Amino acid sequence: MYSASFCFYAELNHFLPRNKRRVRITHFFKDRSSIKDMIEALGVPHPEVDFIEVNGKCVDFSYLVEDGDKINVYPISVAKGTKVSLSVRPKPLKVIRFVLDIHLGKLATSLRLLGFDTLYRNDYEDAELAWISSSQERILLTRDKGLLMRSLVNHGYYVRETNPKQQIVEVVHRFNLSSVVSPFQRCLRCNGLLASVAKKTVIEELPANVKSQINDFHRCQDCSQIYWKGSHYNQLQQFINQVLNVNNS
């Protein structure tokens, strides 16, 4: 029987049992295996890891753990202030796009409100979510750490908050989205892009009070839902301002 010691830093402790948080863990094993497999066996999904040190030297996920290794595992929050010789995190995506699991429907709506291409259905299977994330180069957001451990997933994040209003603040902060927010560009129902339309082309579909009071309209190019700046608009704008102000403070 061999053993190696692991220490997980900062928010990676979220995935560990309370008695193993912020302490050095001794892990016993019979056969040598990759450090990626051992990290996940201890409960930490690989997309959450930024860099790994073994006996003071950085290694990648393919490193085979040896008896007596002293291993430190770090998340992105630590890497931001550290000069790292080797990161296991994939290169940032050129375009920020998301796919969300069944637990994050309200977060999906908030991301669309801010203008981000966000796929969500309440009937996605885990395998399908992993495949979409990989094949379409989308960041997988989930409340299921087992889903993040699927080998297909490169770009992913476990959403810690359970309150939807706090979830959007968390995600905007984690991915530095404040500077690329473009509100009211996407359909909140289906994620389609909105396009300006003449009032005369939609007037027969409008409520009576809207016909007389509103002149500017947009229609979803995918599902044909019509949008206008009604009484709800100010509430949505206030919500957006609150999210951005929290992240900029």
Keywords:
alpha/beta; Ubiquitin-like (UB roll); elongated; 249 residues; 29% helix; four-stranded parallel beta sheet; five-stranded mixed beta sheet
CATH topology category name of the domain at 2-79: Ubiquitin-like (UB roll)
For the sheet with most strands, the description reads: 5 strands, mixed
Show unreliable segments.
none
Give the class-level CATH name of the domain at 2-79: Alpha Beta
Rounded radius of gyration (Å):
22 Å
- What is the overall number of helices? 9
Q: Name the average pLDDT.
A: 95
Distance between the termini: 51 Å
DSSP strand tally: 12
> How would you spell out the order of helices and strands?
EEHEEEHEHEHEHEHEHHEEH
Q: Estimate the helix proportion, in percent.
A: 25-40%
Q: How big a fraction of the residues is strand?
A: 15-25%
CATH architecture of the domain at 2-79: Roll
Q: What would you call the structural class?
A: alpha/beta
Mind sketching the topology for me?
Blueprint: E1 2-8, E2 25-29, H1 35-41, E3 51-54, E4 57-59, E5 70-74, H2 76-79, E6 98-100, H3 105-113, E7 118-120, H4 126-135, E8 139-142, H5 145-148, E9 156-158, H6 164-174, E10 194-197, H7 199-202, H8 208-213, E11 217-220, E12 226-227, H9 231-248
Parallel strand pairs: 1-5, 6-7, 6-8, 8-9
Antiparallel strand pairs: 1-2, 3-4, 3-5, 10-11, 11-12
Q: What does this protein look like?
A:
By secondary structure, this protein is of the alpha/beta class. The chain has a domain at 2-79: Roll (Ubiquitin-like (UB roll)). 29% of the residues lie in helices and 19% in strands. It has 9 helices and 12 strands. The chain has helices spanning 35-41, 76-79, 105-113, 126-135, 145-148, 164-174, 199-202, 208-213, 231-248; strands spanning 2-8, 25-29, 51-54, 57-59, 70-74, 98-100, 118-120, 139-142, 156-158, 194-197, 217-220, 226-227. The strands form 3 sheets. It has a 5-stranded mixed sheet with strand order 2-1-5-3-4. A 4-stranded parallel sheet has the order 7-6-8-9, sandwiched between helices. A hairpin with a 2-residue loop joins strand 3 (51-54) and strand 4. Helix 3 crosses helix 6 and helix 6 (164-174) crosses helix 9. The radius of gyration is 22 Å and the shape is elongated. The protein starts with a strand and ends with a helix.
